[in-house]
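Re: weekly structure request thread

Next one in the queue (43 aa):
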Amino acid sequence: MYELITPDHDDYHLARRVWNRAIDRRPAALARWPATTCCRRRS
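Done, posted below.
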């Protein structure tokens, strides 16, 4: 299952950061999966 991160969450500012710091986006929510092993590629 995933963790839903909203602006009032302690990790929101860290999670919303992208590699290009010229972009400053503030989404209403972010979904964070616990590990990449839970994501499966469909063929």
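The first strand starts at residue 3 and ends at 5. DSSP finds one helix and two strands in the chain.
Next request, please.
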